[in-house]
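Retry 2 of 3 after timeout on previous attempt. Resubmitting structure tokens to design endpoint.
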């Protein structure tokens, strides 16, 4: 039995779809009964639980051999995921597949990279077999973050300067995770998951220009400007600071790596950012 956490998010949802397609035996951890009802209607076994409620995690882990570990990003992420690792050890879980992040490093300046590295270290110390999945930035972030400004004034704003990022499709991350959860031979591995190429924002702006039929321009904004914009949108300060720190990592070249992980694990080619933009062209054109 596999336990999948984070099932209502971009990645967890794809893991559920892939495991269902493979006919795997798994249950999905959800916090709300309404989410459980939706998944149950699709034939997915669910269990109600919350990372902040240890008893619910203990119940969810009963009879589980493998766990896909993914919790919402928050200042408590390290504490909550480490607590689940402790419960998994008590429950006799044999393998944890953790959704981490490209560049995870306990000495990183980015809190997101540091948090994930700390959890990875906790899992290693637990003695439970592990596989770490370290994806790059998601293609699926483009519509919610950048489509509004492209529609409004033909602009893309980000504190990226001329750095390149190998954007990856969440469907490919889900496919890699599902294979790792259902196959042997992945234990002890750390997989960096990227798209097929690394692109600068200026290059992406050119692709969008051709796609939407108008000039799209990329503007590199200063860190503080990006931070204030994110806060003004309603995001908490810790998230805004983390976002800026992550782009500092990208500007140092950390996001430009391109790997063959998707092809090696799933035997299929990774989906490109350009293909994602084409699939969602209407969102960038507006109504």
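Retry 2 succeeded. Sequence:
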């Amino acid at each position: 039995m596999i336990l999948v956490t984070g099932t209502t998010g971009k990645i967890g949802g794809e893991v559920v779809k892939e495991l269902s397609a493979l006919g795997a035996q798994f249950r999905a951890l959800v916090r709300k009964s309404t989410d459980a009802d939706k998944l149950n209607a699709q034939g997915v076994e669910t269990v109600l639980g919350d990372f902040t409620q240890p008893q619910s995690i203990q119940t969810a882990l009963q009879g589980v051999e493998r766990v896909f570990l993914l919790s919402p990003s928050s200042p408590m992420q390290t504490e909550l995921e480490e607590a689940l690792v402790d419960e998994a050890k008590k429950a006799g879980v044999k393998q944890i597949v953790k959704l981490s992040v490209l560049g995870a490093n306990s000495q990183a300046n980015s809190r997101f990279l540091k948090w994930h590295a700390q959890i990875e270290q906790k899992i290693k110390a637990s003695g439970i077999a592990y596989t770490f999945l370290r994806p790059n930035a998601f293609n699926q972030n483009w519509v919610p973050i950048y489509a509004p400004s492209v529609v409004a004034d033909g602009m893309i704003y980000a504190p990226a300067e001329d750095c390149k990022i190998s954007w990856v499709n969440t469907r490919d991350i889900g496919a890699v995770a599902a294979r790792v959860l259902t196959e042997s031979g992945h234990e002890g591995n750390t997989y960096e998951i990227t798209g097929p190429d690394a692109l600068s924002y200026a290059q992406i702006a050119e692709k969008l220009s051709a796609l939407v039929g108008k000039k799209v321009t990329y503007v590199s904004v200063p860190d503080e400007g990006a931070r204030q914009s994110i806060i003004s949108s309603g995001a908490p300060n810790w998230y805004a600071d983390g976002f800026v720190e992550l782009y500092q990592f990208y500007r140092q070249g950390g996001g430009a790596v391109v790997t063959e992980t998707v092809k090696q694990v799933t035997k299929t080619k990774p989906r490109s950012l350009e293909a994602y933009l084409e699939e969602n062209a209407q969102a960038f054109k507006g109504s």
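Attempt log closed. The first strand starts at residue 2 and ends at 4.
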